[in-house]
Design a protein that fits this description.
Rossmann fold, Aminopeptidase, 3 domains, 8-stranded mixed beta sheet, 5-stranded parallel beta sheet, about 20% strand, globular
Length: about 525
């Protein structure tokens, strides 16, 4: 079923949703606080969430214009996401201040991300960990706004929104908005050239005869926007690389430039092999990448390696607008520096044959350790939320949970830079004190920092800082909580190296003094 279609049918969606296999889907719970019916969306959203690898259970409040969140008036169940589903047409007065208060009230009782969807009016205010949308604006690209209301059926359906509007709100929420709130963004976009970024075939039509029609122009503009948001870009095309480079140098009308692409795999090898090479050079999983090509056969040939795919056809603009985890609500400085950091990895690899001290000195590696760094809670939550290869306990703290953790415990973040680039924050350690013993509730290290001879040094330096912070003897072992995940083998291998006792869900680790020769280290 084409879930990106603009001609979806309610009965077909419901039937298709019953046939799906959710064995590989992440189970989530969503609380719905509402004054009009959400059931029309929850009954249709299953296939879209399934495409996003999510399976949702919904808890519904009573219909309540006062939005009373306290027990008895609202929902008390634990959840992963809070949705405020509000028909503003039910109020006679200006309600902006009222809903500001209500969002603050909900934030005081829930650390979950909050999604507000208002029907009838645009309300503009900002809160951390809260996204606000107007239903009419979400639907404006689908059909005329006067076509989304059905007042005659409101008494029966419980909402002014008609069936067509509910279908496409389910599509937008299930494919784009909810995954963006609960799952990490994709990291890289890989693009074909011929008939994808332009109309025509380079090797046959020649540079001057390739057409940049309106669809390809908007596509290039959108890809350029993804680049600015911190996505890595790569080319995987069956062409001659010199011809492709000359194409970008010659065609001044192209929005995308040759240097916008962090990697170019332009050759006659299979695209699956080239995509695997791109993943290795980027040091990310293939499932963190999206490959866009106009050739269905090419897309089918690469699916077996686990990369996500999109067909570049006449609907490509809608597809990339809706595709799960291409939407980012916040762009951090870390996003902007990632590509430059990865581009420098080739030289770092050449220097690995040196001794540790010579390696650190040659690259001029600096590590900066920060305690309870409130200025960077967005990056801390982001790294805890998206790291998969080198993570201990999968706590996945959101912004509010990071803030609360800092109040009573210790979060150490580590920034790294060298003469080639600034990598930004690349490691997080969560320490707590219980009965005069230190616990590591979680830790994670970005894949960009792995393999630079730093993992043990970062671990035991952070351990030492926690000892000093909590004023505990160095002779007391730390207890590290961990889980065996699908992809955290690099962390589990590391744990085997540093721990003297590993149990099913925790490990004991004694403090060790390590040398930091050649490194520049600072603490804040």
């Amino acid at each position: 079923m084409n879930l990106f279609s603009q001609n979806l049918k309610r009965n077909e969606l419901i039937k298709y949703g019953k046939e799906l296999n959710f064995n590989n889907s992440q189970e989530i719970i969503i609380n719905i606080h509402r004054n009009h019916a959400f059931e029309g969306i929850s009954s249709l959203i299953t296939p879209f969430l399934h495409f996003s690898n999510l399976k949702a259970k919904f808890n519904f409040s009573a219909y309540d214009d006062s939005f009373n969140f306290t027990e008895g008036g609202g929902i008390s169940q634990k959840a992963d996401l809070e949705i405020l589903w509000v028909d503003l047409n039910r109020y006679n007065t200006n309600v902006e201040e009222f809903f500001k208060e209500k969002i603050l009230e909900l934030k005081n009782i829930s650390c979950n991300p909050i999604l507000c969807i208002f029907l009838g009016k645009s309300i503009d205010f900002e809160f951390s960990n809260c996204q606000i949308f107007n239903a009419e604006k979400l639907l404006k690209d689908y059909f005329n706004l006067e076509d989304i209301i059905d007042l005659e059926k409101e008494e029966l359906s419980g909402t002014k929104l008609n069936n067509k509007a509910l279908i496409y709100l389910a599509q937008i929420l299930g494919l784009s908005i909810i995954p963006a709130l609960l799952k990490p963004a994709l990291k890289a976009i890989i693009l074909d050239l011929d008939n994808t970024l332009y109309e025509g075939i380079l090797g046959e039509d020649g540079i001057d005869n390739l057409k940049l029609n309106s669809l390809h122009q908007v596509l290039q503009e959108k890809i350029k926007t993804f680049k600015k948001q911190g996505f890595l870009l790569a080319l995987a095309s069956k062409n001659e690389e010199n011809d492709a480079k000359k194409l970008f140098e010659t065609r001044k009308d192209f929005i995308l430039k040759w240097d916008d692409f962090d990697l170019k795999m332009i050759n006659w090898e299979s695209k699956s092999e080239n995509i695997l090479k791109i993943a290795k050079k980027f040091n990310i999983g293939v499932d963190a990448m999206l490959f866009i090509d106009d050739n269905i056969a090419e897309l089918e040939n690469v699916k077996h390696i686990g990369v996500k795919t999109l067909l570049a056809d006449e609907n490509i603009l809608l597809k990339i607008k809706l595709y799960p985890n291409l939407l980012k609500f916040q762009n951090t400085q870390e996003d902007k520096i990632r590509a430059k950091d990865i581009a420098a990895n080739a030289l770092r690899e050449e220097l690995k044959k040196l001794s540790d001290e010579e390696y650190f000195k040659n690259l001029k590696i600096c590590l900066k350790f920060n305690k309870n760094d409130a200025q960077n809670i967005i990056r801390i939550s982001e790294l805890l939320g998206k790291t998969n290869q080198f993570i201990a306990n999968y706590t996945r703290l959101n912004l509010e949970e990071v803030k609360n953790y800092m109040k009573n415990s210790l979060i150490i973040n580590i920034s790294m830079s060298d003469k080639l680039s600034d990598s930004g924050i690349i490691a997080i350690f969560l320490f707590s004190l219980k009965q005069d013993k230190i616990f590591i509730d979680d830790l994670c290290i970005s894949c960009r920092a792995l393999g630079r001879k730093l993992e043990e040094r970062m671990f035991f330096k952070a351990f030492e800082m926690a000892i000093n912070f909590f004023n505990i003897s160095k002779n007391t072992p730390v207890t590290l909580y961990y889980k065996k995940g699908d992809r955290n083998t690099p962390f589990l291998n590391f744990l085997e190296k540093i721990s003297h006792r590993i149990e099913e869900h925790y490990a004991l680790i004694n403090f060790r003094e390590l040398d930091f020769l050649g490194l520049t280290i600072s603490e804040n």
